[in-house]
Each structure stands twice: as C-alpha cells, then as structure tokens.
Amino acid sequence: MNSNLSKKKLQDQEEENHSDDCSSGSSFHHFTHTYPVVMKAFLEMKCGGGGAYCGPVLLAMSGEAQDLRHLEELTGESPTAERAFNYRLSLGVTPMGQLPKPIFWIQTETSPLPGCNVNILCHGWLQDLVFMLFKEGYAEPVDYQVPTGRVAIFSIANMTPESEGVYICRTHIQMLPTLWSEPSNPLKLIVADKPPKPSLSAWPSTVFKLGKAITLQCRVPHPVLEFCLEWEERATSPKFSVDGDFIISNVEGKGAGTYSCSYRIEAHPNIWSHRSEPLKLMGPADILPKPVISASPPIRGQELQIRCKGWLAGMGFALYKEGMQEPVQQLGAVGREGFFTIRRMEDKDEGNYSCRTHTEKRPFKWSEPSEPLELVIKEMYPKPFFETWTSPVVTPGSRVTFNCSTPHQHMSFILYKDGSEVASSDSSWASLGASAAHFLIISVGIGDGGNYSCRYYDFAIWSEPSDPVELVVTEFYPKPTLLAQPGPVVLPGKNVTLRCQGAFQGMRFALLQEGTLGPLQFRSASGNSADFLLHTVGAEDSGNYSCVYFETTMSNRGSYLSKPLMIWVTDTFPKPRLFAEPSSVVPVGQNVTLWCQGPVQGVGYILHKEIEATSVQLWGSTSNDGAFPITNISGASIGRYSCCYHPDWTSLIKIQPSNTLELIVTDKPPKPSLSASPGTVFKLGKDITLQCRGPLPGVEFVLEHDGEEAPQQFSEDGDFVINNVEGKGIGNYSCSYRLQAYPDIWSEPSDTLELVGAAGPAAQECTVGNIVRSTLIVVVVVALGVVLAIEWKKWPRLRTRTPHSSVLLWTNISTSVTQGGSQCDEMV
C-alpha cells in the first residue's frame, strides 16, 4: 500500500479527527455548490507503465448511483451536487449533519491480474476534502489523500492475492474534522487468472521500403515466458519469441498483412494472454500520406464533429475506434477533409479514434492511420463568446483583433490556431464585470490564416472550446466568378442559388454579403465550384454578394474577392437608363451607340423604337452588354427610343422601360434662344446677364457682339455677364453653340438681342467731374468780374480804353470753357 504519511502520523490524525458522535450540530443546508458533478465514480486499474488494463470484478450498482440515475430520469437534467444531496435527504438516505457518501464503483467485468497496479478513484462532493481508504479487517485506514479537487486516487502497486479484499472510502472536511461523510459502497477486489493484452508496434514504421524489413515489437511491463505472433492471413503459422521482437521481410510482397500478438507468464505457462490490437503492415505502393485527426473536447449529451484532414483531393475517409476492426463511419469522396459526427456524446463513445484516407476508385489504396485521438468526456464551463472585430476575411497587412469573453469573472484565456496554443492572457482580476481577452495581430501575413478558437479556465476547471473563426487571408489566388441561378432578380419567398466558380479543385468556399461582418456560409468542394442556397429570400436579403475560395492545408491562403453581384428581392425589375454616345444629335453619315445600362448584372437588354404614338417595335437584336450601335446614320434613324431588361430565364417579375431618348439627325443643330436678365436696358452701375439656351445637352456656347466675338467668348452653361463701362455694352448680340462630341459643327445663330441704356459707371464719374469743374470756372469768372468792376470805379482812366481788352478777356474765358467741354467729350 502507498501512503502519503507514515502510519503513526495517520493514526494520530485519525484520533484527533474522530469523536464519539460523527454528526456535529452544524447544518449542511448552507452547501450551495452547483458545478456539474461527475456522475460515475469508478475503479480504474492499469498495469504499471504498459498501459494495459487490469479489469475490476463486476459488482452491483451502488445505492447512490441508482438514486442519481433515478433523479436524472425524473428531471431530465444532469444532477448537481446540491440536487443530489437534497434528493437523498428527501428519501431519508442522507441524515442531516453528514456529508453525502462518496461515489466509488467499477466499470468492467474483468478481474485484475497478478503484478498489475490498481488505481481506485473516490469522488466526493466538495473541494479540499480529506479522503480515507478503509479495508475490511483493518481498524485504521490503509491510505488517505488530500487532493485539490473532488477526486482522490488510491494506488495499490503490484497486485497480489494479499491485495484482495473489500474496500470503502469516506471523506471529512479539513476545517471540520468531526463532519464525516457516510461510508461509500464497498468494492471487492479479486485477482483474475488471464493476463491483459500486450501492445504491438512496428519499427521503423508500418510501411515496407524496398529491400528493408520491419521489426514487430510485442511488449508488456512485466517478465514474460514467451511471446506469440499471429498473422491474420496465415493463422496456421504463428511465430514465437522470448524478447517479443519479430523480424518481418517483404520478399515478393508476402510480408504485408494484419498481425497481433499474445504472451504467457512463467507462473501460468498454460494460459495465454488476451491478443493485442491488430496492426497492419503495408507495401510501399499501397500507402498514402498520413492524415491529421482533430476534434473539440467532447461534452456529454452534445454533438461532436471529428475532423480528418487529408493531403490529396477527391479522397474517401474512414473513422476507426480502438478495439474495433471495421470502420465506425465512412465517407465518400468529399475533398481534402472529411467530418465525422457523433450525434450525442455518451460514455460509450469515449476511447481512442484514428482515421484513414483512401482513393476514390477500387481497389482502394489506403493511407497510414492518423495519430490516435483520445475522446474523454470532462465537466467544463460553457464555451466563451469568440469573434473578430472586423470581417475574418482580410487582405495582407490588415489589423485583426480576436475577442474572447465570458460572463464568469477572473478567468485566464488561451488562443488556439488549428488546435495549437498560440497566445494566452492572465486572469482579469481588475475587472468587476465579465472577463474578456483581446488577441491582436497587428499586420496579417499569408501564414496567419487558419482556424482560431479560444478557451478560458480557472485553476483546474476549463471551458468548452469556443466556436471556431476561420481567418482567411486573401489575394493569393485568382478571383472567382459569382453567378446567380436562375438570375439575380428574385421574387420574395423564392430560392436563389449563388455559384462561386474558382480556379482550383478541392478548395473551401465562403459567401459574403456587403454590410455583414462575417461570411454567411462556408462550403467544402471536391471540384472547383460551390453552390450557396439562399432559402425563402426576403427584402433583407437584397444587397451585394461576393465570394472567396481558400485552401485548408496551408494557413487558409485565399483568393481575391469575386466581383460583387447585386441580388434584388423584388417583384419589379429596377428601371434601366438609356443614353447616346457620343451624342443624341448626330450628323448624317456618322456613327452612334445607344447604351442601355442598369444595376442588374448578368441580364440582357432589348431596344425599342416608337414608330407612331401608340406603336412600339423591336430594334434589331438583343444585347448582353447593353450596347446598340447604329452606323452611317441617316434620316431613317430619327425617332424616340427606350429599352428594358431581357432576362434569359422564365420569371414573373415585372419589367419597367427606361427613359425615352430622342435621336436627332441634322446637318446643323437648331438655333438657341437668347435672353437678358434682368432686362435689355442698362441701369447705372448694374450688369446684364445674357442667357443662351439650346435644346441639346453636352454643348458649348459662344456670344457675338455686333457681328464680332464678345470679350467673354465661350461658356459651358450659356451665361454671359455684360457691363456697360464707357458705354461699350450697348449693341446687338447673338449666340450659337457647338456639340462637344462634334466640335466642328456649329448651330444656327440665335435671334438678335439689342442692349440699350445710359452710359456705365465710368462715364457717369466723368460727367460729374466736368460739372464740378465748370461750376468752379463760373465762380472764378464771377469773382474776377466783381474785382474788375471795383477796380474800374477806382481808376476812371481805364474807362477811356478801347473795349478790345475786355473782349479779348472774355474770349479767352470762353475758349477755356470750350476746351474743358471738349476734354469730357473725349473721355465719353
């Protein structure tokens, strides 16, 4: 027996913990632990080091196991510790003041063999309990454990007949040594007489190489008298070995086949052990690369997908479970990877699994088995919420942030890529709310693509894995093509299929919608295309869709995104637009193209021409790109045109015509109109805007003044601002235009428009100046006349003079005034 403390220390501890009354006065009703409990305690016995099982003897199911199973049948829920304890109280099984008795029972019907190590597991109902192992006939416990969890493991090394007997387990709380549990159900160990199966392996591998032999190694962890190797294809020719090594050659291809081995021990030379698991040896031409098997941790009662990833396209897949010769599931050719489903994970589904791939056509060529995958159901926290803050389909160099969160506080988080840990974070002790971790890739590279997931944990309890996020790094492969079947315009409530056509086979495809964070759907395909079904579409399904394809074996390297495809969920086609290029006014003999364009892609168009007011005819053939060329145009081309969609599938969707376009054929375009705003009469200090307007779009206007080009010669909008500085705005005006598409062809000139009125601001300033100067001259003349009159009275002698001087003086003055007037006229 293994003991953690010496027998003396154990005895002292027990004397201190025992009392006359195991039931203390404390109430157990404060116990509120609600973690999911392990529903089976069990007896696990393994041969030391070898991994072969030594099975326990079969006993009846314990009372508490029956109670728990009954409780589960009544409620339909997995019992918690609190529910189980309350249920047993209601039955009067567990007295108040005692801990529930631990669970402690067996799984198989095989008894342990001599020399085996036996591990007995005792499951309590609280953390940090003291577990005691008692054996019938001994007053003191034979072993005890103080584990950190709720399970204690008691080991019995090297089973002998002296190890046989009846065992029980009890628990008590460390801080309350007087509060004991009821004794567990008893377990009786009996040493059996048939040795367990050995292991069989091949060195250097299970595949023969040319001219090389393979050594099969049959192994057990204890002394053996003799080993025996059996060849399934030649059962009558066994081989024997003392050391367990068997050399197999492949001369003439006769070494390939299925082998197993057994052994006998010296104590029982007439009893052969159970046979090992079969091992298949294959020739060099019969093998394919080994696949990779993976799965999320299994959860009791939930669906589990097992992923088998091969390396070649178009392979079939087979899933094997240890201990079973035939595959438990098989899949046909589904591409480079296959997914096996266990609908509801139960205890019977636990075990080691492997997968193999094979060629599509018979006779099959098989791969080596994958590495084994062990599925064990564990109690866990619920899975976290896992997402990217942006779309998981990214271009190289993008910034990606993964967010992993849970309502539970103070958790640590781990980020996984393709099942391997790539990053971790410490527990969020500083946060009072929900725990979360953010994992950042600053600049995504081609090698960063893959399947990401996360988990959280505290101490010994882990969560389920999150749902995976497939990070796809694009711009490595050419872009695919996305088409809608039957068409991109769909009636509400109907189905539409979007086909993404790539350039390579065996890829995985994703469908994206503009405005949606992540891909809508994923599809794996053995060919080079994948179909995505939009079922019973509604108005919310309208929008731009695109797709991408990527490989799953090389970090999700993806293609460029396809060209967006607009899906319309409506009962009426959107209205197209009809226009002419280069212009709807075309000289005789020139060419013109009528374009019918609309937002719906992948739909043909049809052109109509009005012959009479109520008559419509088809103009030529339909067009897939919306172009209708008309060459060497003549007068027969004149008319009004319209167009509409011409879908190539049967549909009840209404079709609307486009706008009407009038095609004009002429030597010269019609003359424009010319008007003045606010009028044709200039007012002092105000400008006049001449507005030249034509009947056609896409033209350039020119203005003429009295037969010559005006200072502001050209205008695209037809507006010309005229001022009357120095009276130069007055006169006759006309305008014409030319087509931008045909710059050498001018229209007829417009009707003449005359602008009249007073001089402009500069002339007004000149007139005011002349008036001021004339007034000053008059004042000066008057003043001089007064002065001369006074002087004349003072000197009488001047009166006798001839009047010539006076006349001359006035003549000079008049000349001066006249000269001043001549200068103003010149300015005007």
UniProtKB/TrEMBL annotation:
Q: Which SMART domains match?
A: IG, IGc2
The cellular component terms of Gene Ontology attached to this UniProt record, alphabetical and capped at eight, are: membrane
Keyword Transmembrane helix among UniProt keywords: yes
UniProt-listed InterPro entries: Ig-like_dom, Ig-like_dom_sf, Ig-like_fold, Ig-like_Receptors_ImmuneReg, Ig_sub, Ig_sub2
UniProt keyword terms in alphabetical order? Disulfide bond, Glycoprotein, Immunoglobulin domain, Membrane, Repeat, Transmembrane, Transmembrane helix
Which residues lie within the region annotated Disordered?
1-26
Query: What are the BP-aspect GO terms?
Result: immune response-regulating signaling pathway
SUPFAM superfamilies per record = Immunoglobulin
User: Could you list the residue ranges that cross the membrane?
Assistant: 771-792
UniProt keyword Cytoplasm, yes or no: no
What is a single Pfam family found in this protein's UniProt entry? Ig_2
Name of the molecule in the record: Ig-like domain-containing protein
Please name the source species. Answer: Ovis ammon polii
